[in-house]
Amino acid sequence: MSIWEVIIISLIKILLIVVLMLLTVAYLVYFERKISAWIQNRKGPNRVGWHGLLQPFADVFKLLLKEDIVPEKANKALHTLAPFIALFVAFATYAVIPIGPTIELFGYKINLVVADVNIGVLYVLALTSLGVYGITFAGWSSGSKYSLLGGVRSSAQMISYEVSMGFSIAGVLLLSQSLSPTKIVEAQYGWMWNAILQPIGFITFVVSAFAETNRLPFDLPEAEPELVGGYHTEYSSFKFAGFFLAEYANMIIASMMITTLYLGGYQIPYIDKLGLNQTLTVLLQVGAFLFKTAFMLFFFMWVRWSIPRFRYDQLMNLGWKVMFPLSLLNIVWVAVLIMVFRL
Hints:
Blueprint: H1 3-39, H2 55-65, H3 76-92, E1 103-105, E2 108-110, H4 120-141, H5 145-176, H6 181-186, H7 194-197, H8 199-212, H9 224-227, H10 237-262, H11 278-304, H12 312-341
Antiparallel strand pairs: 1-2
C-alpha cells in the first residue's frame, strides 16, 4: 500500500473508533441505569423512546442547554482545560488495542487495530497515568475545598494502585515476552489464557482497574456524602459531561485491557482447526472480543450496585498491604511457571 492509502485507512479507523466509542459511552450510561434498576427491583429509564432507548440523547440535549457556570475564584484556564485532558487521555488509549486479527477487505489487508506498536502496553500505562492530571487540575482550579480534596484523593489513589497494576502486568509480559498487545493475545493460544495461568495477577489487575477508573467501591474522589461531588463539584453543562464521558470511556478501556491481557483477547480456543472461512473466522473473533469486553463492563456495573464504598484508610490498606504483596507474589509464581514448565 502507498503512504496515502495507509493514511486514509488509519483515518477511517480513527473516525470509526471515535463515533462508536461516543455511542457506546452514551448507551453505557443507559445500561448502567437499567442494570441498577434491575438489581433494585425497579424499571429505570422507560419514558424517552421504546423502553427508554432514546434517554442518552435526551441527557446530552439537556446538558448542552444548561448554563456553563464557572466559580468566581476558579482558575478559568485550567478549569476549562481539565475535562478536555480527561477526554483526550481516555480516547487516545484505544489506538493500540487489537479487536481482531488481520482481515482482507476490498483487496487490502487491514489490521484491526489503529496502531500496532511494539510498546503498546507502555503506551496505555503512560496515558492512563496522565489521566490523573485532568482530575487534579479540576480539583485545584475550582477554588473549592471539596473539589481540592477529591483531586488530592484521586492522585494518592492512582499512585497506590498503579504500583500493583504494573507488577500484575509484569507477569503477563514475562509469559508473552513482548510489550505488543497483539503478540500478548497471540501468546494466549487455545486455553493458555493468563487469567487461568496467573489468577492472582488477574485478580490484582481487576481490583486495580476499579481503583484506576474511580468506580465503586473505590470512588473516593467523588464520594457524594462527604465531598458533594468531589473533583467535579463546581462543573456544569458540557464540561461536567466531559468528565462523565471520560469515566465511562476509561471503564471500556479497562475492560478491553483485561480482555486483552488476561482473557485471550479475540482468541476463540482452537477456532483455526474448524476449517471455517477466513472472513467468518475473523468476524467470530471480533464478536468474541466484544462479548468478553461486554461481560467485564457488566461486572463493573454489578459490583458498583452490590458493594458499598470503602473508607479511605481501607482503600489505602488494601492497595499497599494486600494488592501490592499479591502482585509481587504473582511475579514469583510466573517465574516458577516459566522455569518448571518452560512456558
